Amino acid sequence: MRCRGLLLLSLVLALGCQDKKPDGSAPAASTTNTPTGTVEPIGPGPKVATAPPLAGTIDGKEFRPTDISLNGIREMAFVMFTVRDGADETSIHIPVPLKEDEKAGGKEWSFGGKIDDPPVTILRPGKDNRVDVFGQDYTVTVKLKTQTREAVEGEIDFVATKPPGTNLKGAFRAKFIRSPTAPLGPDDAPCVHGKIVLKSPKKTEKLAAGFVGIGSDGKPSSNEALLQVSIGQVMHTAMPNPDLPSQLSVLASTGETLLYRHLNMPPGDYVVYVRRDTIMSDWKRVQIKAGELRELDFTIDPANTGEVVVTLPAATDSSETSLALVPLKADLPDLGLGSSQYFSVATVKMGETSVKVSGIPAGKYRAVRGTDEAEVEVVAGKSVSVTLGPPRK
Hints:
Layout (H helix, E strand, L loop, with lengths): L17 E3 L10 E3 L4 E4 L6 E2 L5 E4 L2 E3 L3 E7 L2 E10 L2 E9 L10 E6 L7 E4 L6 E4 L4 E10 L3 E10 L5 E12 L13 E8 L5 E12 L4 E11 L3 E8 L2 E11 L3 E6 L4 E9 L2 E10 L4 E3 L2 E3 L4 E7 L9 E7 L16 E5 L5 E8 L1 E7 L2 E7 L4 E5 L6
């Protein structure tokens, strides 16, 4: 299953921002950027000042965002400026008081300088990777000029005294990611969406919502949204599908409810599922048609799970392998060669002779590692053992 990076929104304080009216000036009809920070009109007309290219610093180190998004959630939105270097991520999250049913274009806010202004979040690689910059330690102006269904264009001027040497200024174009609670419409179809009921949750839960299957055109399609949820907090992640940019998978916590959405899925035959701690915890088969908005709810009940101890034959190679538990007699579409990997529950390291996996929903499974397999029945609240071997002829 593909892994993709997270976008995380966390609502920690109420906003105290002031909404300014736009100045009403009309932009040039057709322009081109010049290195001086002005705009040269194509044809007659005066030069018009514009924002410089987006650039800044964090802790005095250069910061040039390459991934920018505007993420909405109910009464709040965040403009997120991010640089990724492999697994490392550096980002600045600026909150703005944009409601999920409001248009972003033409909005402008200036805030900061007061202790009750909302915090700005800075994420950096390393042990102490999160810094909340409180109102008295920064000032910011955000202008959102134009908006489409996919993007927002605007300008930012941000200066912080903590951490010292932190600022960001210039024009930007951001992906527009709507609130996960915004009303669904025809432009979102085909779509599968619903609630995730998690019984007896831990304080922090590692969850994923995804789908995998075959489109009506015969092509495979899949996507998965991952989120480490702090139960009771407002946050969400949105994952665009690299193979189909219009398709977006969303996993969210509203503080009271867990929600998921798979927007703009290709029509087809799918398994829609939820993982908890990487374990496939609930799944349903769905055949979705063009224009359809399908609601499916999932329930994860730790009390209905058990433990499996799998004894493994000696590996024939030195590489890591995967252990999968594929549900027996489940109503699953034909997912093609290697489909057992969608039900992977553990990575088997070189030299390991047994693997213990907890949190498996009660039921009958086919345990698979490479060409070795065995059937096992998981019992709620108990530990069961199974030994893998060559398949029976």
